[in-house]
Input
Amino acid sequence: MSKTYISRHPLESRIPADPGIRAVDHLEVPQRVAIATVMAAEGGDAFVAAALAAAGDLSLRFVAPGEWLALSQLDTPEILQRNLSLLLAEAAHIVDQSDGRVLLRLSGPNVRRILAKGIATDLHPNVFEVGTSSNVLCGHISVNLARTGENEFEVIVMRSFAESLFDDLKTMGREFDLSVGFST
Amino acid sequence: MASLISCPHCGTRPKEEFSIRGDASVLRPDPEASDEAWNDYVHIRANPRGRYREHWQHVAGCRRWLVVERDTMTHEVYSVTDGAVAAREAAR
Amino acid sequence: MTAYRLSAGGLVDRTNRMDFKFDGRTMSGLSGDTLASALLANDQLLVGRSFKYHRPRGIVTAGPSEPNALVTIGQGSRSDPNTKATVAELYAGLDARSQNRWPSLKHDVGALNNLLSPFLSAGFYYKTFMWPAAFWEKVYEPIIRRAAGLGRAVLERDPETYEKVWAHCDLLVVGAGPTGLMAARTAGRAGLRVILADEDFRPGGSLLSETVEIDGMPAPAFAETLLAELRSLPNVTIMPRTTVFGWYDDNVFGAVERVQKHVAQPQAKLPVERLWRIVAKRALLATGAEERPLVFGGNDRPGVMMASAVSTYANRFGVASGKSVAIFTNGGTGYRTAADLAAQGIEIAVIIDSRADADDVAPTGTRVIRSGSVTDTKGKHRVSGIVVERSGFEDTIACDAVAMSGGWNPVIHLACQRGAKAVWSPELNSFLAPDVGNGLAVAGAAAGIYSLAACLSDGAGKAAAIIADLGFSAVSDVLPSVSGEIDPSFTALWYAPGAKAKAFVDFQNDVHVKDLGLALREGFGHVEHAKRYTTNGMATDQGKLSGINATGLLAAMQGISPADVGTTTFRPFYTPVAFGALAGTSRDEHAAPVRKSPLYNWAQKNGAVFVDSGLWYRPAWFARDGERTWRQSTDREVLNVRQNVGICDVSTLGKIEIFGRDAAEFLNRLYCNAFLKLPVGKARYGLMLREDGMVYDDGTTSRLSSEHFFMTTTTALAGGVMSHMEYCAQVLWPDLKVRFCSSTDQWAQMAIAGPKARHVVQALVEDDVSDAAFPFLAAQAVTLKGGLKGRLFRISFSGELAYELAVPAWFGEAVADAAMEEGRAHGICAYGLEALNVLRLEKGHVTHAEFDGRVTPDDAGFGRMVSAQKSDFIGKRLSTRYGLTAADRMQMVGLKPVEADKTFRAGAHLLREGAKPSTLNDQGYVSSAGFSPTLGHDIALAFLKSGRERYGERVVVWDKLGGTETVAEVCHPVFVDPGNAKLNS
Output
C-alpha cells in the first residue's frame, strides 16, 4: 500500500486562509523553505564560507564560527541537501533542518520599531547592515535574524517555538496594524 | 535592567542571552592526578571581589563558550575571548 | 475663594475646557493643565492627609518631587493609587480621589493622631509595639497599616497592556529644559543619533515657566523653536512623558514612557506604558535642579508651596496660588517669584529674607523683612497668616499662600545610582554629581550652574565635547542671548530659627526637626540610620525634597559640614514604576513560550489531556468516552500496550547529530560506557556522568555511519546536555575533530510499542522490520511507503516489542494518523506520559525521578556498564572515591505491598520493621510509585541501603505527608518480563 503524506506548516492553524488586507507592515510566511545546517569540518571554515558565498542560488545565515544555515526558496530539502553535499563534500557536515525551522519575513517602514520590542541588538542600518545575520534573543526565544533589505528582515525560528514567536510578533506589531499571511 | 557582553562572534548582547558556568581559571586535571587536584577542580572555588575570569556561554546566540574577564564589584568587562582559543592558549 | 485662574496667560488652551472629578465633585480645567494646576484653579488646595498624623496637606510643588498631592486616578480595575497630581496630565473625564482620609478629606478621624503626636515620635513603632511579640502581627500591625495606608492597590486584574522596547543612541539627553534642548540641538546638528527624554508631557522644562526673553523671544517660544528644529532632524528622537528612572551597567538606561496615561479610554493597540531600555554610547544629565524647602514652624500647612511652583502655576498654567502671597526666601529665587506675581497683579503680602543684606530687588512697594524668620503659620485647612520674627520682635502677617525658597539641589540621582557618592560643594551649598567617567556627563542646573545663559552655553558645550569624543565634528553655533535674568544664588538655611510649631522636613512621612534630633541623641545619627529611624526620605517621594535638608540638619546639629554627613544611597527608581511596565508583555500565556510537538494536533484530535513538561505541552493521557478519571484512561492505555499496541509521542526528547573523525572518541569520553566500537546501524543505551561521578543524563545514541552519530537525551535535560557537550568540545577538548548540532525540531518521533507493533510498523515502512532483519537495538534510515524518508530505531522504554519511528516534522501528523489507521485492526491506542511512566516502572526502567543527582551508575544497577578500560571519561576519576563505592550505599530495588490493596507514594522513606522514624534509622526512599494494572497492585522503585542483598526482606514504607505506613517486600526492580522475551520477540 503506497501513501502520500500531507505536510502541514506549523503555523497553519495560526494564519487565516483568507489573507485579508495587507498593511504597510506585513509578516509574510513562505509555505516551504529548504533549510540546512552547514558545519565546516575542522579547519575548513574559510573554504566552506567561500564555497557557499560563491553558490549564487543559496542564502546564507551566520550561526556561529564555522556554522551556517543555508536556505533555498526554490529547491526541495532533498535537492538542497544533495547540492550542498556536492559543493562541499568532505569539507562540511550537513543536516537538513527544513522541518525543524520556520522562516518568517517582516517588511515595512516600521519593522525596526517592531523588532525593537523583542530584540536588544541595534538594528540601525549602519550597524546591522543589509546582508547581516545572527542568532539573537527575541523576547524569550532564540532566533536567527537576517536583514534582507533596508526595511526587510527574515526570522528563522525552531519549529516548536514557531507559534509562540508568531504570537509575540503579532503583539509587537499591533501598534502598526501588522498584517500576516502565507506567501502567495 | 541590563548588562551587556560583547560576544567576539555576535557583537554586543544583553546578559539574558548568556548563561554563566563560573570560574574559567580551573583546568581539568589529568585522569591520574592526585585526589587533591581533582577535589580542587570539582569542588573548590574562590569567590573573589574584583577581577574574575568566568565561563559564559552565548546560549541564545552562537552557543560558543566564552571566557569573560570582569570585575565582580563593578561589572566592568575587561575582555571576552572564545573558550576554545583560551583553552588552547592555556594548554600551551 | 483664594487660588484662582488668571484672566490671561500661560500655556493652557483657554478654548478647550475639560471637566474632571475630584472626590466626586465635578470641576473644570483647561487643556495643558496638570491635575494640580486645575485643582488650584478651582481653589482646591487641600488634597490629602499626611501619613502618620493625618494632618491636612496641600499641593507643594509643580513636579515629580511632590510629597503631598497623591491621589487615586481612575475607577475599578483601572485605578492608579498614589499618582502625583502635579505631574498627572489633565484630560476630560479624569476621575481623581484623595487618599488616606476617612470618612472624608475635610473630616478625618485619623487626625486624632495629630493630637497624640507627642507619643508618636521617631522610633515610636519600634519602641511601643515590641511586646508582646505575638501582638505585632495580629494586633498592632493591622491597625497601623489601616491608619497609615496610602492609596489602595487594586486587587482586580490589570486590564491595561504594557510593553518593553530597546533603543540605541550615541547620546541620550535626560531632560528637555534649556540645557538639554541646547545639547540635543548641538548633537543633532552634528549628526549623532540623539534621544531626548523628558518626564513632562510638554518638553521645555524651566523655559515653560520663565519670563525672560531669549533671542528676543519669550522663553516658551524659544523652546518651541528649538523643538521644531529637533523634530526636523531624522537622527533625533524626542520622547516626552518619559522618565529616565535608572542608570545601569554598561550605560544602559531604564525609562518609562506614559503612552496613554493621559486618555480616558486607551486604544487597544497601544500600551498604556512602555518600558524603554536605552543603550547609550554617551549620556548627558540635564535634569535641572530641585528647589529646597525651608524648614520652619508650621511649614506643612496647605498653602505653603515652593516659590518656583508658585511661579510655574502663574506663568505656565495661568493660575494664582493665592490672592495675597507671603514669600520666605534665603536667596534670589524668592525675588523672582515676587516679580512674577507682581507682573500678574497678584498681591505680595511680604518678603521675608533670612539674609541681612542682599542685592536682590523686590517689586516696588513690597514690604521686605531682612534677617527675618517665619516661626509659625495660622489657619486650619489652609494658611491664613504667618508669624514672623526679627531680632526678637514678632509680627503676624495675613496671607493666603506662602512661597518658600531654600535654594537649589541639583538633580543628580542617576549619576549616583551605581555606587558613586554625591560631592558637597561649600561654594554652592549643594551636593553635586560625582565624576562617573566618560559614559555620563552632567550639565546645566544639574551641575550646579544656575544662570539660564550659562545653562544654554553649558548644554551646547558639553554636547560639543561628546561629539568630538565620539569622532563627529560639531557644527559651529551661536549661543542665544538672554535678557532679564535674576541671580538665583542663596545662603544656606537648614532651619528657620524660633519655630513655634512642628517644622517638617519630610512632609509625606511626617518627619520633623525634633525627630532628627531624637535620632541623633539615641545614637542613630548616621545619615542612613537616621533615615530608617525617623523614616525621613522613605515615602513614595524617596526624599526628593527632604533628603538634603535632613543631611544639612544632621550636620548643623553636630556642628559639622554636610560633606561629613553625606547623603543616603541613591537607587533606581527615580520615581515609582508600575509592575505592569516592568513585566511588559510577559504575562499570562506570554509569561513563557510554549513549545509544541509536531504531533500536538494529532494528540489533540485523539483526546489528549496535556501537561506542562518544561516549556513543552505533552499528552498526559487520552481520555475516552465514559472514562472519568486519569487512572481509568491510564490503566486502559497500559494494558492495551501490553496486550496489543500503543503509540506515544516522543518528539520532545533531545536529538543531536554528531559528526567528525573524532565523533566516536568524543562520545567515548562523554559517556561512562564504551562507544568506540558501536557498529553502524546500531543504537546503544548511554549513561552520562557529572564530573563528581553522579549520573547526569541517559539516552540512546545510534551510529548512522562511521562518522555520524545520532544522540537522544531526556526531554528535561535536552538543553543542559547540549551545553555540556559544547563545553566539552570547545573548552575541554578543543582539538577533537567533532561537530554537532541539535535536530530536535526536525523530527516527529513516535514510539510504537506492544506485541502487535511490528504489524503496524511494517504496514508503514518499505524496509523489512522483522526480528531477523531489524533486531533489538537496530537503528537505520528507512523509507516509508510512498517514498518519505525516515529513521527507525528498535528501542523500548515500555519493555514491549517496540520501535521508534522518526519522520520529518511537518509530516508527523499525517504519519501518526496513518499509524492509527493501520493499527486499528490490531487494537492500537494512543498513550500518554502517565501510561509511559507506568510501563517503564513495571519494567524497572529509570527516569530523572531515579537519577536525581545523588545516584551513581552502580546505585541504579548499571555498575557493570561503567568502563574500566577507558583511560578517561567525564566523571571517571571521582567515581572511584570511597563514598561512591561504599557497600552500604542505597541501591535501586523494587517494592511490592504485602497487602495488595495498599498504595505507595514517591518521596516516602523506608524503615526496618519496628524502627522509629528518624534520620538515623532511615533506610532509603521511594523514587517512583504507581499502580500497575498488569500486576493489579501498586509497585515502586526505591533506593535502599545495600538493597540488592535484601530481596525478600520486609520494610516499612513511611509516608509522613500522606500519614500512612505500609509494609512492603523488597524485590528485583524489573516487575514485568525480566527475561526480555517480549522485548526481543
Notes: The mean pLDDT of chain A is 95. Chain A has two domains: 26-31+100-182, 34-96.
